[in-house]
Amino acid sequence: MDEKATKVFRSLIRRRIPRDLYQELLKMTFMYDVNNNVKGYELKRLLTEYGVPYSSLGSGTNRFGILIDGYAVKFALDPDGMIDNKREFLYSEMLYPSAVRVYECSDDGLIAVTEYVELFNLDAFYQYSNEMRRILGKIAESFLVGDVGVTAKNYINWGIRHTSHGDEICMLDFAYIYSVKYGIFKCTCDDETFLEYDKDFVNFTCPRCGKKYTFGEVRRKVTRSAQDKEIGDIKRLGYVLNAPEVELAINPKFTKFGKDKKKKQLKGAKLARKLQEAEQKQAELLQDCFDYNITEEED
Domain coordinates of the chain in residue numbers? Predict the structure, then answer.
């Protein structure tokens, strides 16, 4: 019997975040009497205390971005942030290169590791606004996604990836993405008509009755249990690691092996068809509450 090809897989989280620090961060995340601004300061204090080299990237509503070893690392500040990390992990492979690649995510969603790209400034926002509309138009054929619409309020959720093939724009924060199969994205005027984006992909309108909705109004209908069901157990998505570096047999379901080809943006209905494939290509995992999911990094 021929021996299977193997590859060494690595976990940045496992390498940089010791178990004691992980437990401290997890405990902080569930401190409901502490606001997330304070948690951001505590996060940086803990990283410093444990000797983790980092630079601050900034805070969002539910997560704090840290630069470690050239990667953007998103730390959840509350349970919603943990769901956000897992949601991006689930969908990143489908949306790449229109979204940053998520290389790694802890099993509970506490920490996610993504590629680091140059953040948009206002000049870039105006320069690439038409390209943003084009990308969102394709994604909108299969998904609803919020907080990345073409508005100055959202420009910091976009960035520029510099490649040998030229510059590409991509979404940095795409946690609010949902399949259009959800019935909650239908208008109350009937049981069939789905809401449609406005021209800048910020708000929604019913094409039948004309009623307008904000993304926030629609998103509030998505329950925690519905999100948990949609995401599922991300342990099903890939390899299991028990150390910062593990050599494993290549599983073609989980790993692209051999000559890597430049990915092309998924278009229209292809996004929907890629949903199940994405569940098989995402990650590598450690066991128990210190589990990690890791996608293959380019050499």
Answer: 6-117+233-294, 118-224
